[in-house]
């Protein structure tokens, strides 16, 4: 009888771990429930994520502070924004930044190697959904390495 109880308890624990793994951090929804249909995303977001002031008690206090004082900086290729390249915009953000900085990127083709250093937190890139910018770069991970790799080449093996 004892063995059967242990087996049931182990199964419940495994199910709970699996459920927790599928859930996004600090949320009560399953990642698989995020709608694929763009028209449904806004409604889903309002239901499960909601405004900052309704969930600020569940978030890291540093993040809450950063979100309350967000700053938007416009990048526009035509010169009508504060910057005309994404990298110039990123360079303008102070090291150790404590506020959310949203880089609003205007439409167009931006051919830049975009690099956001880890000592510049809270930077978000935003492109207007109806007129999305195209961000490209001609390099590869083989040439430049990956995140925090000190530019070591990527090793690829064939099976």
Automatic annotation (TrEMBL):
Residues 74-135 form the Pectinesterase catalytic domain. GO terms for molecular function: pectinesterase activity. It comes from the Eukaryota. Pfam families: Pectinesterase (PF01095). Residues 1-23, 140-159 are annotated as: Disordered. Gene3D superfamilies: Single-stranded right-handed beta-helix, Pectin lyase-like. It is found in: Secreted, Cell wall. Keywords: Aspartyl esterase, Cell wall, Hydrolase, Secreted. Signal peptide: none annotated. Residues 1-18 have a biased composition (Basic and acidic residues). Pathway: Glycan metabolism; pectin degradation; 2-dehydro-3-deoxy-D-gluconate from pectin: step 1/5. Its EC number is 3.1.1.11. Belongs to the pectinesterase family. This is pectinesterase. It comes from Flemingia macrophylla.
């Amino acid at each position: 009888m004892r063995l059967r109880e242990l087996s049931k308890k182990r199964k419940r624990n495994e199910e709970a771990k699996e459920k927790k793994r599928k859930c996004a951090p600090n949320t009560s929804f399953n990642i698989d429930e995020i709608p694929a249909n763009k028209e449904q995303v806004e409604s889903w977001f309002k239901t499960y994520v909601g405004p900052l002031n309704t969930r600020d008690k569940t978030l890291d206090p540093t993040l809450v502070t950063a979100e309350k004082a967000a700053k938007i900086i416009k990048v526009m290729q035509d010169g009508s924004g504060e910057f005309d390249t994404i990298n110039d915009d990123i360079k303008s953000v102070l090291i150790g930044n404590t506020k959310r900085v949203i880089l609003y990127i205007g439409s167009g083709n931006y051919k830049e190697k975009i690099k956001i250093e880890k000592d510049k937190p809270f930077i978000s890139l935003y492109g207007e959904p109806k007129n999305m910018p195209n961000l490209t770069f001609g390099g590869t991970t083989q040439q430049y390495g990956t995140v925090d790799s000190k530019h070591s080449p990527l090793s690829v093996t064939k099976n």
